[in-house]
């Protein structure tokens, strides 16, 4: 009986240690993000937010004001989705390495561009340079629903090799839009 109670305590200790590790990692993420700003910039942002918060508290007291703002945001999101064709369904970010001079994060995005589903995984290396932060994409992996076009497969492979995430999003947007047009056209003739 004593052994089972010791095991229960050990399990609880391990669970608490894991929770402490996760909270420490979250704290480090927040601390690292704030380390890129000077004390003056942080104080200026805090004062600005305090001023906005006081003004916004008065303005947002009514429920109808919040509903109107939500509707406005939904319209903006709908416009951006219609304009770009991208609809992101999930995003996850995990910090792999963090030092004073660099941060490596692993990102995973899933979504659709028009009717083409995709999943993108990549590592982002961020290094502060004076007042700016430079970012480099590496280990790019793109998974798309089965497309019978071999040119798209070649494009995806070359994009992965170069680690050119921006080119992927630009190109897949145009391709997916025309893919939809081709699909409708062929259905029309069937």
TrEMBL record:
Pfam families recorded: CENP-P
InterPro entries assigned: CENP-P
Coiled-coil ranges (or none): 6-83
GO biological process, one term: CENP-A containing chromatin assembly
Entry GO CC: chromosome, centromeric region; nucleus
Keywords: Coiled coil
Protein name: CENPP protein
Source organism per UniProt: Illadopsis cleaveri
Lineage: Eukaryota, Metazoa, Chordata, Craniata, Vertebrata
């Amino acid at each position: 009986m004593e052994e089972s109670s010791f095991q229960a305590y050990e399990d609880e200790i391990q669970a608490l240690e894991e929770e402490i590790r996760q909270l420490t990692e979250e704290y480090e993420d927040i601390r690292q993000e704030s380390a890129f700003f000077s004390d003056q910039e942080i104080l200026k942002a805090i004062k600005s937010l305090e001023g906005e918060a006081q003004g916004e508290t008065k303005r947002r007291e009514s429920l109808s004001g919040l509903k109107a703002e939500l509707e406005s945001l939904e319209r903006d999101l709908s416009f951006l989705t219609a304009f770009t064709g991208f609809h992101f369904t999930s995003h996850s970010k995990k910090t792999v390495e963090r030092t004073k001079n660099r941060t490596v994060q692993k990102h995973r995005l899933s979504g659709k561009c028009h009717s083409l589903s995709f999943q993108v995984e990549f590592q982002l290396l961020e290094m502060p340079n004076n007042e700016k932060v430079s970012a480099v994409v590496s280990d790019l992996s793109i998974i798309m629903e089965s497309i019978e076009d071999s040119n798209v497969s070649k494009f995806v492979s070359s994009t992965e090799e170069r680690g050119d995430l921006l080119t992927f999003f630009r190109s897949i947007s145009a391709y997916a839009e025309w893919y939809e047009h081709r699909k409708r056209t062929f259905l029309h003739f069937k």
